[in-house]
């Protein structure tokens, strides 16, 4: 909007009147237009009423206001950047973005000028500093920043800061707005876009944050061209940009290619920018794009968790869970759009109410008792934009009033943050991780630990295949540890089927090694008396002789084995020299007799026992290991594992069963069923049918039959025999309880 004067010969009093009238016109126009991103003017009216009424929203308002008021008594600090992640200047600029955001919201809710002034004063300081900044001295990669060591953090800063400015803008004079916009907001937006095309056009979470930041800034500063570039890339060709990221980074089921840890992180710019698009240009119908993809992605992010923590696939920090602010925003925005009552139960677990219009709806829904239990499902999540390049399979079972989950990772690489562990699995029970994934070797934002970056051991151990629960051939990682090569390939999901008692899935990969393909079939069974087990069948097929290792990383204290261990009690040596093996101490070695052999451990979080029973040959060795070798800086967490090793074979089939059982109660000093209850484990392959026999001490006997045929339907019939008796079943599997 332009304002001008018809005559230059205006008396000073009259000029003052004209200027005052003009400023009133500007202020009223600005006030009507802002905020216009995640929070709208309509939201503000409802929120102002809500803070006057007792309840969750008022409690959050009072807490945020009290904390902010305390911080506003301190001097504004905008230091010259010098530190990497976790360092003082890094954390100070992060804190400033949150302070400004909260102050902007508080200005809208209270209409008190001091909050707008706080945002103004801090941004004026940034406007003085930013034009003087070179590239950050601790630059991390090609995605460089100025305020921060990487442009990613710069984009995050702008996502928060532009919302703060949007909210405070009606209380900031035009002269100060000009200084702020020219000195910092426009400069940061241009730095993230025109000056960083390699990141801005990148189909990656760094690109998502950058496009979201620039696009949201475009809406606030009335730069529609910035919005178009954010949506379609710098030349508006559609080869990059926000919409291409939505197209390529998610599968049709809403699975993000880098895994759940990065899915929750990338979710923030996706849903925040989408909300801004919906506010400003509802005709784009952004939440309907790709059959409602973003709403599916929010749900998928929740589904990929257990006991509030995300499944730690790839470069994941294991303590991250559904209470992260990214998913709090996602849940609130989706609830605001759908009013799905199941989301309220997740919001209750998150225990955070946002001071937004959607946050108000969440608070009101909870207070009205509308929350319903969230339905965590057994489900297949296809990988890649097409959803047909591998999959993440989640098997869930309710047993003994506690949920169990099997995570079967048959996905693609997941770009540079991916780990080399095709057909890996994890197991969760009674709230705890039992068969575990290492996740990332990183102490996020702990400057003393390699500046808070991924540690060298992330590459040398955490990413390597031996750190995971899948087949390792000749002590080398899948794709020889080359992620760009791995990115070209993916497993083939052969089948998935389930009913109330059984969930079974199978996948194979023939590209991880030059002359070896392998297949893994997993089944989660719910037997009589609420007993549950996991059946695991791994087929290795090589053109020549190889060493086959099958590691199992477990959480707990080793209790017993039914075979003798040769423990290394006076000195330790590493298991190997490279590919992660150099970081494993060999604690004990065993050469059990052929047959069913057992390893039992106690998980000390849930006080349950777990027995791993496996069929071994006379050549099988069992290596008991612990991380810590070649780790002079103590960067690796203490992780126990055992490795089933077949030293020389072309073909080999590992058949194993994981059996939860018993209870250990140290306070009341009793133990129940501390030993495995499985008495028989037998395996037979009859053409395309795998038959597993199971028997338990209480007399329970079962047959699990799985058809491996390619064209099996729900009505397909298969026949097998066992101990002279013939059995016929329909579909992919059958679980029979024998007399």
What are the SSEs and their pairings?
Elements (H helix, E strand, L loop, with lengths): L11 H22 L7 H10 L5 H17 L15 H23 L2 H17 L21 H18 L5 H19 L4 H4 L4 H16 L3 H9 L9 H7 L11 H21 L8 H15 L1 E2 L2 E2 L14 H14 L3 H9 L6 H11 L11 E4 L8 E9 L2 E9 L13 E6 L2 E4 L20 H7 L9 E2 L9 H4 L5 E7 L3 E8 L6 E11 L5 E23 L2 E5 L4 E2 L16 E7 L4 E9 L4 E9 L4 E7 L12 E22 L1 E3 L4 E3 L5 E9 L2 E8 L4 E7 L9 E6 L2 E6 L2 E6 L1
Antiparallel strand pairs: 1-2, 3-4, 4-5, 5-6, 6-7, 8-12, 9-10, 10-11, 11-12, 12-19, 13-16, 14-15, 15-18, 16-17, 17-19, 18-19, 20-21, 22-23, 23-24, 24-27, 25-26
Helix pairs in contact: 3-4, 4-5, 4-6, 5-6, 5-7, 6-7, 6-9, 7-9, 9-10, 9-12, 12-13, 12-14, 13-14, 14-15, 14-16
Keywords: Lyase, Periplasm, Signal
Organism: Neiella marina
GO molecular function: lyase activity
Write a brief caption for the model:
Keywords: Lyase, Periplasm, Signal. This protein is of the alpha+beta class and 739 residues long.
Percent in strands: 25-35%
Specify Rg, calculated over alpha carbons.
Answer: 29 Å
Helical content band:
25-40%
- Report the total helices: 18
What do we call the CATH topology of the domain at 379-653?
Beta-galactosidase, Chain A, domain 5
- Per CATH, the architecture of the domain at 379-653 is Distorted Sandwich
Text of the CATH class of the domain at 379-653: Mainly Beta
Structural class estimated from helices and strands: alpha+beta
Average per-residue pLDDT, rounded, comes to 93
Dominant shape: elongated
* Record field, number of beta strands: 27
Described by strand count, sense and barrel closure, the largest sheet is: 12 strands, antiparallel
Span between termini: 84 Å
Identify low-pLDDT runs. 1-32
Protein name: Alginate lyase
Domain Alginate lyase: 76-303
Signal peptide: 1-32
GO molecular function, one term: lyase activity
